[in-house]
Backbone:
């Protein structure tokens, strides 16, 4: 490279061949330092940043031949030179062509160079007013951590150092149990002052207020997440010793009796009030904010697993009806298969077809089929089975149907409360053995509370875990449902937090792992789902909302670039949200918030005894904790160096 670090020619930077390295092109004009941009005084750009810019630019050139960047120079907090540069590689030299200037802005971070590879078409699409024309710099430690005290920085360093020790992360639950047996008081005190304070916002809404105020001062809004959840027992049979008040059920087809603990129902009713308080807290501190909700806290997990089995077997039955494997079943195919599996007269079958083929197009798809075979309606069909198969054995008893309806009522109560308060509900994803039931319950809520005829914006968000092999298919099927039934589609997109559990369970029970085989496949699935939803939003206008919930900087940058290309605005458009967990990836959240994106922090809260098992499971099962701590530590150290030059 024929240039000196910290210097550039006005309008041109040469990339000379070895034959011309020793001489300057006399036509290039006088050499100027970055301090002379626009003939205004400013601080000199750090040479290492300019070198980084040049190297990133040249890497981009090998693919796209041109790139854009913005040079910012600042004095006393005011931009003195804000110049966008178009860099073009013609195979001989790399030219930095000075372009338009931008209006000064105040209170921006330290001088920086940002680069975003684009093509000519993208340049035309990205120049709309209010759309960022350069990528955001996520490596600024001041933006990420200036809100922390020095003690909080040191505590964060200690926590992340521990998270780097794989043996501790893998055995966290065991270590906590052993420590609790020795001295539970000391154990709770140590955990509360370290991991709890770093990853949790507090015990209740009053305790959380300082954290929420700090976030909002920095352009970040809270997602309140009461971290109680009920994972049930280890038995796959769902049978436990019966207490006097426990609920005894009698499934059909001579199946063994099932017992559901009454205490579990009491706990679920208590959790309704806690979640109601959470919704009210969101209303009070953040208009149009979010509250997170776990269905396992509102229903017996064993019942959810039973319900999921019913839904899975219904899908398998549809695949038998779909003899052509086209995803569609003709009326004749339906009649033939229905007679094979159920006892029914021709006029009964004709009535069923009329009820489910609402658009009367002569075809039935899975969405219509699933509406017919809802878990609570399943006994109506399975009592006519010609043989007792998997679907018949999954049929719920009358008592189980009553419990499912009670669980649905709890969810509807909270959804109505959220709608009345102007709060949005994020329904968290959970273990695969519960997820089909959760999806079914969420779809019921969305049809009612996201109804396009009653609201302009969605209230209920479902969650899609992209480490699942069927994540993209599920998201698109639900998007089709939203169009067909007239409700706003709303989704939180995550990679997933139960990877080790799902793989171990698949191996133990002898079925194919539902998880993508590699991280690269998961990343690809995540980015594809986000892209499809953003493009849908761009093509169909307001209504659809998506939350990009990720600690992966590459996915965040990709989503920001796509928003830019599609003309999806930032602060003026609430359709796209970004979220990270409290205590993690602050460089992503606070930088997005400062750039006027809809940035959120997930704030787990609750008593230490209820919250810590939840967080330890996250640390154990979410591999991104180990992947990201290196970057987190570097940024924390950079912030300490910025404050104390001797560090």
Residues:
């Amino acid at each position: 490279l024929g240039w000196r670090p910290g210097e550039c020619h006005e309008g041109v930077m040469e990339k000379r061949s070895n034959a011309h390295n020793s001489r300057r092109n006399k036509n290039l004009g006088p050499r100027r330092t970055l301090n002379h941009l626009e003939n205004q005084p400013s601080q000199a750009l750090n040479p290492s940043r300019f070198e980084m810019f040049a190297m990133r630019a040249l890497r981009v050139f090998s693919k796209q031949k041109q790139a854009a960047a913005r040079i910012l120079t600042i004095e006393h907090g005011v931009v003195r030179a804000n110049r966008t540069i178009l860099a073009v590689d013609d195979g001989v030299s790399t030219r930095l062509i000075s372009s338009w200037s931008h209006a000064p802005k105040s209170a921006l971070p330290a001088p920086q160079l940002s680069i975003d590879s684009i093509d000519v078409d993208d340049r035309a699409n990205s120049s709309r007013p209010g759309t960022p024309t350069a990528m955001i710099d996520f490596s600024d430690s001041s933006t990420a951590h200036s809100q922390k005290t020095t003690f909080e920085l040191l505590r964060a360093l200690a926590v992340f150092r521990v998270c780097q020790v794989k043996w501790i992360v893998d055995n966290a639950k065991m270590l906590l149990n052993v420590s609790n047996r020795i001295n539970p008081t000391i154990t709770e005190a140590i955990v509360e002052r370290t991991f709890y304070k770093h990853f949790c916002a507090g015990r209740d809404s009053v305790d959380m207020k300082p954290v929420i105020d700090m976030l909002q001062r920095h352009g970040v809004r809270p997602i309140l997440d009461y971290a109680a959840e009920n994972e049930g027992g280890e038995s796959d049979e769902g049978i436990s010793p019966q207490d006097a008040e426990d609920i005894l059920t009698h499934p059909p087809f001579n199946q063994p009796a099932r017992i559901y603990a009454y205490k579990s129902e009491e706990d679920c009713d208590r959790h309704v009030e806690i979640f109601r308080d959470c919704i009210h807290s969101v209303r009070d501190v953040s208009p149009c904010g979010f509250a997170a909700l776990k269905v396992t806290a509102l229903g017996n997990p064993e019942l959810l697993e039973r319900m999921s089995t019913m839904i899975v077997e219904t899908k398998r039955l549809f695949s038998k009806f779909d003899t052509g494997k086209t995803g569609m079943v003709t009326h004749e195919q339906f009649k033939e298969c229905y007679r094979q599996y159920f006892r029914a007269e021709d006029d009964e079958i004709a009535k069923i077809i009329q009820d489910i083929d609402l658009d009367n197009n002569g075809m039935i798809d899975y969405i219509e089929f699933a509406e017919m075979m809802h878990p609570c309606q399943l006994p109506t069909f399975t009592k006519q089975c010609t043989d007792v198969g998997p679907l018949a054995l999954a049929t719920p008893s009358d008592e189980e149907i009553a419990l499912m309806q009670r669980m649905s009522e709890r969810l509807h109560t909270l959804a109505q409360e959220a709608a009345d308060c102007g709060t949005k509900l994020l329904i968290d994803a959970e273990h695969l053995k519960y997820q089909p039931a959760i999806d079914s319950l969420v779809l019921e809520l969305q049809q009612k509370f996201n109804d396009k005829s009653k609201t302009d914006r969605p209230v209920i968000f479902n969650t899609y875990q992209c480490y699942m092999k069927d994540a993209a298919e599920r998201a698109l099927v639900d998007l089709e449902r939203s169009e067909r039934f007239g409700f706003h589609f709303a989704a939180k997109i995550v990679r997933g937090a139960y990877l080790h559990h799902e793989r171990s369970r698949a191996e133990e029970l002898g079925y194919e792992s539902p998880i993508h085989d590699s991280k690269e496949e998961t990343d690809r699935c995540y980015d594809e789902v986000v892209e499809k939803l953003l493009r849908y939003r761009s093509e169909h206008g307001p209504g659809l909302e998506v939350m990009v919930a990720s600690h992966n900087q590459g996915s965040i940058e990709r989503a920001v670039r796509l928003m830019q290309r599609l003309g999806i605005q930032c602060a003026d458009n609430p359709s796209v949200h970004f979220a990270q967990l409290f205590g993690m990836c602050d460089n992503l959240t606070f930088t997005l918030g400062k750039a006027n994106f809809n940035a959120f922090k997930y704030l787990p809260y609750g008593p230490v005894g209820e919250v810590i098992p939840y967080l330890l499971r996250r640390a154990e099962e979410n591999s991104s904790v180990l992947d990201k701590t290196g970057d987190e530590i570097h940024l924390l150290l950079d912030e300490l160096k910025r404050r104390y030059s001797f560090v």
